[in-house]
Amino acid sequence: MEFFQQVIGQEKAVELLQQAVAKNRIAPAYLFAGSDGIGRSLTASCFIELIFATSLNSEKRAEKSATIKKRIKLRNHPDLLWVEPTYLHNGVRISAAEAAEKGVKRKASPQIRLEQIREVSQFLGRPPLESSRSFVVIEQAESMAESAANGLLKTLEEPGKATIILIAPAVESLLPTLISRCQRIPFYRLNSAAMEQVLIATGNQEILQHSEVLALAGGSPGEAIFAWQQLQAIPEELLNTIKKAPQTLRQALDLAREIDKGLDTEAQLWLADYLQQYYWQRFSDRATIEKLEKAKKMLQKYAQPRLVWEVTFMEIRTLFS
Question: Per residue in 41-64, pLDDT tens?
Fold first, then answer.
């Protein structure tokens, strides 16, 4: 259990992976299926760290243990390739984190692209350098375009001395042909006690005081932390105004303009989710929730955001009046 000490609330997944190592029956491909923010990527890191450690002989194990941990955290071990969805910006692939750091406006979701799958094939085309096997982790595997998924299928058929870990929200989010070649490892949303344990351990205990954030997270510490960060990024004055709901037509139009000007599309989608939870906890009005759900669908279809919020707030104003 030493290597999985940081994994909380995923006893079944940890047990299955430990048994695979103990019995030397490591599968060529795994599907880590479960909601975002509940420990899938962390568990993948711990599992790979365990494999790399057991690949060393007893004399070298203690000597290289600290080095392995550092490499896993930095994801730069020569036998590990970690793949994340990317955006295309000026013809260059950038990750979601890089897009946020550079202030790149994101109208569509990031994808795992065919070029990235080709890089996976090239990576697996050489034998492992320091371990008994190579590892490839593909986060948000559900974001693969069809061409990328078909390219990965060929790699899964003959992975060589390697294990590929696909991380996705649900089994049905991937092509059946991919699923059939993977051993499924289930991940579950955390109960209240486990949520509290993770949030305290990560220094995010203040989130426990915000019921709407916890409700929005739905048993996912990662989602709770993300929601809290999103909440903190919204100007306090704007947030307070939104919470009160517009009382006049002018307020509705001004509020829509401020949201459109200050938040990108992804942040606006998150705000709609948050307002659904906030309004429901305070007013329990189903019609308001339905108006916000309609707003989310329109934003996802790339409708003009300011117009979407103008219509939504005018309708909410009518309901409250």
Answer: 999 999 999 998 887 644 444 444
